[in-house]
Each structure stands twice: as structure tokens, then as C-alpha cells.
Amino acid sequence: MATPKLDDLDYKILNMLSSDARKPYLEIARECNVSGAAIHQRIQKLNSMGVIRGSISLIDPVSVGYETCAYVGIFLNDSSKFESVVDHLRDLPEVVECYYTTGKYDMFLKLYAQNNDHLLKLIHDKFLQLGLGRTETLITFKEVFKRQIPIKKHPEIKQ
Fold first, then answer.
1. What is the mean pLDDT of each run of 10 residues along the chain (159 residues)?
2. Is 26:43 a contact under the CB 8 Å cutoff?
3. Parallel/antiparallel/unpaired status of strands 68-76 and 132-139
4. pTM summary value
5. Percent of the chain as helix, strand, coil, to the nearest 5
6. 36-48 vs 8-19: helix axis angle to the nearest 10?
7. Which one of 9, 10, 18, 125 has the fewest beta carbons within 10 angstroms of its own beta carbon?
8. Helix (H, G, I), strand (E, B) or coil at 48
9. DSSP assignment of 55-123, as one string?
10. Residue 27, SS3?
């Protein structure tokens, strides 16, 4: 996929939105010294180019009853079953991220469970039913930090 051509204004907008996706367009416009309509058009363009893939409200999992965060490495018995396994994993709301990887695991997941018992039930009742080779699970104690990727200009754009 080709890197989209972005200019200084695009990068300034992306920096502001990455720190606060709910920042009002008029506030962004003031800080960028352009009209609100220009910001609206730029954000629409960034959305249509796929640079911005939406905005979300981050919910604290513990506050809604999900006390256990875990990462699960999956070993597939048959790599041709990848799409089928992904389809089944999509149906599990506890699985919040899924990656096809190189290295030790065929797939790597992030999931939230209500507690360790719920996690064990997910692994035994849901994952093992998929005919996986095996899984390795890492339970996190605490999220230390989470952040957006740094928004920097593409090397071909002068800084």
C-alpha cells in the first residue's frame, strides 16, 4: 500500500486528533490558522484515504467488569484454517485484537476476561473447540501505559 501524500496541515491535524479525538474542529482550525470548513474537508479527506480509521471512546475494562487482560499465542495445526479460526474469534467479544504473526506463534490475540476463571473457561470452552494445536497465555498484571504512535512527517516531506 502506497503511503498517502500528507502535508504539514495534515500532520498538525493528526497530532491534535491523536491526543484528543473529540477536539472540536473550530479549535483545531484556530490552532492551524485556517477555517473550520478547511479542517472539516481535511478530516474528511484523511478519513476517505484511510489515514484516520475512526475514533473511539476508550473504556476502562475493569470499570465494566473485565479484570483480567491476557495475550494468547496460538499455534495452528493447519495454517489453511486461519480464516476459519479468525471467523470464530470474531464472534468472541472478549477478543479485542487478533494478529497473524511471524515467529513463535501463528496468531496472537489480546483479550479481556471478567476474571481468571472466565479466562480459563474461554480457553477450554471456546479456543480448544477451534481445533488449535495449542495456546500459550500471558496474563497482564497492570497496563503501565498505552499511547498512539508518534505522528511524524514522511521522510520525503521536508521537516
1. 82 92 94 94 94 88 96 91 92 96 94 97 89 91 89 59
2. no
3. antiparallel
4. 0.80
5. 40, 20, 40
6. 90
7. 125
8. helix
9. ------GGGGT--EEEEEEEEES-GGGHHHHHHHHHT-TTEEEEEE-SSS-SEEEEEEESSHHHHHHII
10. helix
